[in-house]
Specification:
The chain is built from two helices and six strands; from the N terminus they run αββαββββ. The protein is α+β, with helices and mostly antiparallel strands. It has one domain: Hotdog Thioesterase (Thiol Ester Dehydrase, Chain A). The chain has a six-stranded antiparallel β-sheet with strand order 1-2-4-5-6-3. A hairpin with a 3-residue loop joins strand 4 and strand 5. The protein is globular, with a radius of gyration of 15 Å. InterPro entries: HotDog_dom_sf, Thioestr_dom. Pfam families: 4HBT (PF03061).
Length: 155
Protein backbone atom coordinates (compact mmCIF):
# COMPACT_ATOMS: atom_id res chain seq x y z
CA UNK A 1 0.00 0.00 0.00
CA UNK A 2 1.33 3.45 -0.82
CA UNK A 3 1.84 5.99 1.93
CA UNK A 4 -1.03 8.17 0.71
CA UNK A 5 -3.43 5.21 0.59
CA UNK A 6 -2.37 4.21 4.12
CA UNK A 7 -3.00 7.75 5.42
CA UNK A 8 -6.45 7.93 3.77
CA UNK A 9 -7.28 4.45 5.12
CA UNK A 10 -6.36 5.56 8.66
CA UNK A 11 -8.60 8.61 8.26
CA UNK A 12 -11.48 6.31 7.22
CA UNK A 13 -10.73 4.06 10.18
CA UNK A 14 -10.92 7.00 12.57
CA UNK A 15 -14.24 8.19 11.16
CA UNK A 16 -15.70 4.66 11.29
CA UNK A 17 -15.05 4.28 15.04
CA UNK A 18 -18.33 4.23 17.01
CA UNK A 19 -16.85 6.47 19.77
CA UNK A 20 -16.70 9.34 17.31
CA UNK A 21 -20.49 9.47 17.14
CA UNK A 22 -20.27 10.81 20.72
CA UNK A 23 -17.31 13.06 19.92
CA UNK A 24 -17.89 14.38 16.39
CA UNK A 25 -14.49 15.33 15.03
CA UNK A 26 -12.45 15.34 11.86
CA UNK A 27 -9.03 13.75 11.46
CA UNK A 28 -6.57 14.65 8.74
CA UNK A 29 -3.17 13.08 8.23
CA UNK A 30 -1.06 15.47 6.13
CA UNK A 31 2.13 13.38 6.19
CA UNK A 32 3.86 10.46 7.85
CA UNK A 33 4.21 11.10 11.57
CA UNK A 34 1.72 13.99 11.63
CA UNK A 35 -1.96 14.38 12.46
CA UNK A 36 -4.50 17.14 12.92
CA UNK A 37 -7.82 16.67 14.68
CA UNK A 38 -10.64 19.21 14.70
CA UNK A 39 -13.36 19.15 17.37
CA UNK A 40 -16.25 21.43 18.30
CA UNK A 41 -16.65 21.81 22.08
CA UNK A 42 -20.16 22.62 23.28
CA UNK A 43 -21.91 22.82 26.64
CA UNK A 44 -22.82 19.13 26.40
CA UNK A 45 -19.10 18.45 27.04
CA UNK A 46 -19.02 20.58 30.23
CA UNK A 47 -18.75 19.36 33.82
CA UNK A 48 -20.84 20.88 36.62
CA UNK A 49 -18.57 23.94 36.96
CA UNK A 50 -19.16 25.01 33.37
CA UNK A 51 -15.96 24.00 31.57
CA UNK A 52 -15.08 21.06 29.33
CA UNK A 53 -14.64 17.76 31.13
CA UNK A 54 -11.16 16.20 31.18
CA UNK A 55 -12.42 13.52 28.80
CA UNK A 56 -12.08 16.07 26.00
CA UNK A 57 -8.40 16.66 26.78
CA UNK A 58 -7.61 12.95 26.77
CA UNK A 59 -9.70 12.04 23.73
CA UNK A 60 -8.24 14.74 21.53
CA UNK A 61 -4.62 14.43 22.65
CA UNK A 62 -4.53 10.63 22.65
CA UNK A 63 -6.18 10.40 19.22
CA UNK A 64 -3.80 12.96 17.71
CA UNK A 65 -0.66 11.26 19.04
CA UNK A 66 -2.02 7.78 18.30
CA UNK A 67 -2.80 8.46 14.65
CA UNK A 68 0.48 10.30 14.09
CA UNK A 69 2.26 7.15 15.28
CA UNK A 70 0.03 4.72 13.37
CA UNK A 71 0.99 6.51 10.13
CA UNK A 72 4.37 4.81 10.51
CA UNK A 73 2.87 1.36 11.11
CA UNK A 74 1.17 0.01 8.00
CA UNK A 75 0.36 -3.56 8.99
CA UNK A 76 -1.26 -3.53 12.46
CA UNK A 77 -3.33 -1.34 14.76
CA UNK A 78 -1.33 0.21 17.56
CA UNK A 79 -2.42 0.46 21.20
CA UNK A 80 -1.93 3.21 23.77
CA UNK A 81 0.08 1.82 26.70
CA UNK A 82 0.49 5.06 28.68
CA UNK A 83 -0.47 8.68 28.23
CA UNK A 84 0.56 11.78 30.22
CA UNK A 85 -1.58 14.91 30.12
CA UNK A 86 -0.56 18.42 31.05
CA UNK A 87 -3.67 20.61 31.26
CA UNK A 88 -2.72 24.27 31.04
CA UNK A 89 -6.10 26.01 30.93
CA UNK A 90 -9.80 25.21 30.56
CA UNK A 91 -11.04 24.06 27.15
CA UNK A 92 -13.38 26.79 25.88
CA UNK A 93 -16.58 26.25 23.95
CA UNK A 94 -15.94 26.45 20.23
CA UNK A 95 -13.55 24.87 17.78
CA UNK A 96 -10.33 23.32 19.09
CA UNK A 97 -7.49 21.55 17.29
CA UNK A 98 -5.14 18.79 18.32
CA UNK A 99 -1.88 18.38 16.48
CA UNK A 100 0.06 15.16 16.86
CA UNK A 101 3.48 13.99 15.83
CA UNK A 102 5.49 10.82 16.14
CA UNK A 103 8.60 11.35 18.24
CA UNK A 104 10.33 7.96 18.03
CA UNK A 105 9.89 4.25 17.50
CA UNK A 106 10.85 1.46 15.17
CA UNK A 107 9.81 -2.06 16.04
CA UNK A 108 7.41 -2.54 18.92
CA UNK A 109 7.24 0.63 21.03
CA UNK A 110 6.61 4.17 19.83
CA UNK A 111 6.37 7.63 21.38
CA UNK A 112 4.00 10.32 20.16
CA UNK A 113 3.16 13.76 21.40
CA UNK A 114 0.32 16.16 20.83
CA UNK A 115 -0.94 19.57 21.77
CA UNK A 116 -4.44 20.99 22.03
CA UNK A 117 -5.05 24.50 20.70
CA UNK A 118 -7.86 27.02 20.57
CA UNK A 119 -8.98 28.36 17.22
CA UNK A 120 -6.76 31.40 17.93
CA UNK A 121 -3.70 29.15 18.34
CA UNK A 122 -3.50 29.38 22.15
CA UNK A 123 -2.19 26.16 23.68
CA UNK A 124 -4.65 24.51 26.09
CA UNK A 125 -2.85 21.25 26.89
CA UNK A 126 -0.04 18.88 25.91
CA UNK A 127 0.24 15.13 25.95
CA UNK A 128 2.84 12.43 25.46
CA UNK A 129 2.02 8.79 24.92
CA UNK A 130 3.68 5.46 24.46
CA UNK A 131 2.17 3.07 21.97
CA UNK A 132 2.83 -0.52 20.97
CA UNK A 133 2.06 -2.74 18.02
CA UNK A 134 -0.94 -5.03 18.48
CA UNK A 135 -1.63 -8.30 16.69
CA UNK A 136 -4.72 -6.80 14.99
CA UNK A 137 -4.17 -6.44 11.23
CA UNK A 138 -5.36 -3.06 9.98
CA UNK A 139 -6.98 -4.64 6.91
CA UNK A 140 -9.42 -6.52 9.17
CA UNK A 141 -10.84 -3.30 10.66
CA UNK A 142 -13.98 -1.63 9.35
CA UNK A 143 -13.09 1.64 7.71
CA UNK A 144 -9.48 0.83 6.92
CA UNK A 145 -10.18 -1.28 3.86
CA UNK A 146 -10.41 0.69 0.63
CA UNK A 147 -13.77 -0.96 -0.07
CA UNK A 148 -15.22 0.55 3.11
CA UNK A 149 -17.02 3.55 1.63
CA UNK A 150 -17.33 6.29 4.23
CA UNK A 151 -18.58 8.94 1.78
CA UNK A 152 -21.01 11.34 3.35
CA UNK A 153 -19.89 10.59 6.92
CA UNK A 154 -19.79 13.87 8.82
CA UNK A 155 -17.68 12.63 11.73
Amino acid sequence: MTTDKHLRALERLYHAAPINRSFPSKLSLPALGESRLEFEVSEEHFHAAGAAHGTIYFKMLDDAAFYAVNTAVEDVFILTTAFNLHMERPVPAGRVWAEGRMVSGRRRLFVGESRLLTEDGEEIARGTGTFMRSKIPLVTLTGYRESDDMAGDSN
